[in-house]
What does this fold into?
Amino acid sequence: MENTSILWNISSAKPKELAFDQRQSIVYFGNIDSVKGVDRLFDLAEALRDLDVNNIKIEVYGAARNSAEFVASLEGRAKSLGLKNIQLMGHTANPEEILATAFLLCRPSRWNDPWGRDVIEATCAGIPCLVTGEYEGVIEHGKNGYLMPEFDAAGGAQYVKSLVDDPSLWQGMREFALAKADRTFRGESQAKKVGEIVEHLVAG
It folds into this structure.
């Protein structure tokens, strides 16, 4: 059967106006495990440090699903490398509030899945995303974030630096994200799609 439409999660996330230099966190939301690529965030932290991007911190929100040893290894790595720009924050009950003030959302998954509730919510909050994968249905490369078909910490750090160095580039991505959110992830647009699908099924 030919796909004619995608129904996305509806988001009520709203953008928050905040001075550019007050947005100082790259955020991750999800399970703390290898499949989700959380260890890659530590690669990114090291690469950012090497580029002297010192005003941006990585905040990792979530809990370990499978292995406390994995979390311990991440904490040990940060300590051994002297990484001061990344922190495991644990579970949060208010991801929307944290996301609204973020600089960037990062989803470094080892699956080819550059989408998800975290990315949709970020788009609706006007926050650019750095994600791994190839599908451009949510993040369009260079427009509302960056897609990496294969994770590359040095390349990802360069993307972050480009946004840090150019507030107008970040603002342009924010505006594109919000426009895409209005077209794609709000209740009105999804209700319209549901109606179109029902009409198609009845007619077919």
In short: The radius of gyration is 18 Å. The chain has a mean pLDDT of 91. The CA atoms of residues 36 and 79 lie 22 Å apart. Helices lie at 38-50, 68-81, 95-100, 117-124, 153-165, 167-184, 187-203.
